[in-house]
Backbone:
């Protein structure tokens, strides 16, 4: 099972300047409703065909997120099986980010 990162841990990593790549695996309409800045949208159903877009830099923390953390967990496990390292699923998804880090991000 892929490891998780909490919204607060992710915010702290970003704040501290740690290299982070955010992958949003929700649908386009969800991303248009609410997203974390600097995210790359790769809907879960497109992930196999677009996996080459995900950088393989082991020094970069790769954080995958969805609405509540279920789809991102599956995606993170898939990305790990492809040989990526330093991969985390955002626990609680963007909903957690909105509640714990940035209330300006709409909840839906």
Residues:
């Amino acid at each position: 099972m892929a490891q998780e990162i909490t919204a607060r841990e992710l915010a702290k990593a970003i704040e501290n300047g740690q290299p982070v790549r955010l992958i949003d695996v929700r649908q386009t309409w969800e991303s248009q409703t609410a997203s974390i800045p600097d995210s790359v949208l790769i809907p879960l159903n497109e992930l196999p065909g677009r996996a080459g877009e995900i950088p393989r830099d082991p020094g970069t923390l790769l954080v995958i997120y969805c609405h509540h953390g279920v789809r991102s967990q599956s995606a993170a496990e898939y990305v790990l099986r492809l040989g990526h390292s330093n991969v985390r699923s955002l626990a609680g998804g963007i909903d957690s980010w909105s509640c714990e880090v940035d209330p300006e991000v709409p909840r839906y």
Remarks:
- The CA atoms of residues 24 and 41 lie 5 Å apart.
- The longest strand covers residues 20-24.
- The domain at 4-100 is CATH 3.40.250.10 (Oxidized Rhodanese; domain 1).
- DSSP finds five helices and five strands in the chain.
